[in-house]
What we know:
Blueprint: H1 2-24, H2 27-40, H3 48-59, H4 70-78, H5 87-112, H6 117-128, H7 131-136, H8 143-156, H9 166-180, H10 190-202, H11 208-223, H12 227-231, H13 244-252, H14 272-286, H15 290-304, H16 309-325, H17 336-343, H18 347-352, H19 354-368, H20 374-403, H21 407-418, E1 424-427, H22 430-442, E2 450-453, H23 460-470, H24 486-499, E3 504-507, E4 519-522, E5 525-528, H25 538-550, H26 565-586, H27 590-603
Parallel strand pairs: 1-2, 1-3
Antiparallel strand pairs: 3-5, 4-5
Helix pairs in contact: 2-5, 3-4, 3-5, 3-22, 5-6, 5-8, 5-19, 6-19, 6-20, 8-9, 9-10, 9-11, 10-16, 15-16, 15-19, 21-22, 26-27
Amino acid sequence: xxxxxxxxxxxxxxxxxxxxxxxxxxxxxxxxxxxxxxxxxxxxxxxxxxxxxxxxxxxxxxxxxxxxxxxxxxxxxxxxxxxxxxxxxxxxxxxxxxxxxxxxxxxxxxxxxxxxxxxxxxxxxxxxxxxxxxxxxxxxxxxxxxxxxxxxxxxxxxxxxxxxxxxxxxxxxxxxxxxxxxxxxxxxxxxxxxxxxxxxxxxxxxxxxxxxxxxxxxxxxxxxxxxxxxxxxxxxxxxxxxxxxxxxxxxxxxxxxxxxxxxxxxxxxxxxxxxxxxxxxxxxxxxxxxxxxxxxxxxxxxxxxxxxxxxxxxxxxxxxxxxxxxxxxxxxxxxxxxxxxxxxxxxxxxxxxxxxxxxxxxxxxxxxxxxxxxxxxxxxxxxxxxxxxxxxxxxxxxxxxxxxxxxxxxxxxxxxxxxxxxxxxxxxxxxxxxxxxxxxxxxxxxxxxxxxxxxxxxxxxxxxxxxxxxxxxxxxxxxxxxxxxxxxxxxxxxxxxxxxxxxxxxxxxxxxxxxxxxxxxxxxxxxxxxxxxxxxxxxxxxxxxxxxxxxxxxxxxxxxxxxxxxxxxxxxxxxxxxxxxxxxxxxxxxxxxxxxxxxxxxxxxx
Length: 606
């Protein structure tokens, strides 16, 4: 017994040293964040981009929307084997792995720029549970991988980074290529990356030309995932097949959105001051306000005085590019849905502020920590990150419940389940055009329904792809001529669908194009009737819609007025019942009109 006790005591110092080493590298706080992220990963699709990535990751063979994000798509394809509740859940877990790696890299970057391990753990805990970070790091989205690539760049480029000389320069070039293969905004940290690459060249006495040549090759290797897009032609979900290298360049340059710096092809004119105010509010909220002030003050101080001022000036320039300068290009209105679109791009400047925030917290700790006993200071240092992790999570969970609402998936599922056999559903929004193929092909829900992505129907490549399911070429007239007018395409499409005896459902946005056709609302869609078919009575329409909504699962938090996808879904529900109330009122059935209006009010965002 005494011998066993002695052996155990001998092992304790080694265990303590190992545990301290893990803690100094952010291992324990990363473990806590990993458990939290796994718990929060949704088993369903939650928005349009998320549905697209989940579908491509599970089904393969598709090109994502510009710029294609091939590195992330390849990651999802490689991780599609993960045991999970659904393919959407597997894609979310694959993203969680990237987010946890980002936390570890960010912790290392903070230490490489001069912060203590304790302050590094403190700031990564705050950043990891900020509202947008918590959302984007736990669902299938490209921003976790973008953050990982950027964190690695600022770690390797740091004055006290893990590598020196040629290997620093070569690795930074590789990371630059990989980062661009995922998300183009990583180029905004180019000042830091270039600074590190130049320092790496200066750190070697000879062979600099060879290092530059190898770095160029490493950059090309990092960009190689884009070649995958040239062969990703099949699959039920794709933005478009790329026509050779010219098409790849066009996709990389985001030509479908107008140009490289555009965020919406038909965007609105938004005040620069409004965009800057939205950025400031989002970053301040992410950092719980006071640490954001500490970060900015510490960054300014390091740029003015102290060692490595050139490095810190490059860092400050990257923060400005990723934040205040980038948002001047935003052309998306700052309504509820527009805020969601923009908020994803606030993640990068928020993450960059973690490094100066950690430096600033160290300065404060040194100045005021002397007033505390050693035990008190040690206790605060150990439990502080965990407290921030818990408080930040509690503050972000209510918003996350709406962000990860199953409302979008359940809406698309209900449209498919309630559609008549062999129906054709014409859609114009990402939730249907990406969500429906995922539900049909990955989960096997109503594969007999043909979902048409209407904005693409006039494209020859899409018409050829959808032709087997439709049984006709929507871009060709009855004599084989190509149709150029959208109105001609629409009317001939409808007539041919009805000629084949297939039920037709379209989204409400298309109703204005279909005035000559009899129609009636059915859930969030409109049923378009053949010219010879009698229109059902209003009472029958009401009964059909009651049955449609009775089959809808609404067991989730009611959406907010200023929400995003769940709010959009419920506004469609409200429009459907408002239309029914209007029809009943026109027929003089005031009692049922009031019931329909009450149903609209019940479903309305709060």
